[in-house]
């Protein structure tokens, strides 16, 4: 009996020790949990720190970009008209040579052909001018009127010169190596063309000077 009582006493003494160990573990667990919880809050605070904002790229680009100037519609029209005027003087040498041949009773069939081609080219210029937009140009009505009259008169003159070449190639058309008749109608039309070209050149050159385009003499139109 005494032995059993001794074992019972030892068993009883272990119970408080086990309970104390359990309480210690619980305290440690609570402390660790508190530390972890505190660390989580710090991390949350760190995660919520404001980030310095930068200006959007589009705003920076718009601030630095300069607005490109819009094209001047009058200048665009002047450039297109300049191209047409460059074509107007191309047949002048051919016409002068053809008229010279008729006067000298030389190469008459070719002269007549060249003159009719020149007249056709002048009429084509009038048609092309009518298709161009020139309403933004200064004094555009006066300019287009002068050009139209000049080219129409030139076409008329060239056709009259061609008819003169035909007459000169006919019977008694030449006398002592010269044309027997004078192209009166052609000369009158040519005079009208010269007068209108002078008007057109003056109006055009004011525009050409403003936009840095080619200035032209009346004989180049």
Automatic annotation (TrEMBL):
Where composition is biased (Low complexity), the residues are 52-74
Q: Residues annotated as region Disordered?
A: 36-78, 172-195
Q: Where is the composition biased (Polar residues)?
A: 181-191
Going by the UniProt record, its keywords in alphabetical order are: Membrane, Transmembrane, Transmembrane helix
Residues crossing the lipid bilayer are 15-37
Query: Protein name, please?
Result: Uncharacterized protein
Q: Which organism is it from?
A: Streptomyces coelicoflavus
Q: What is the lineage of its organism?
A: Bacteria, Bacillati, Actinomycetota, Actinomycetes, Kitasatosporales
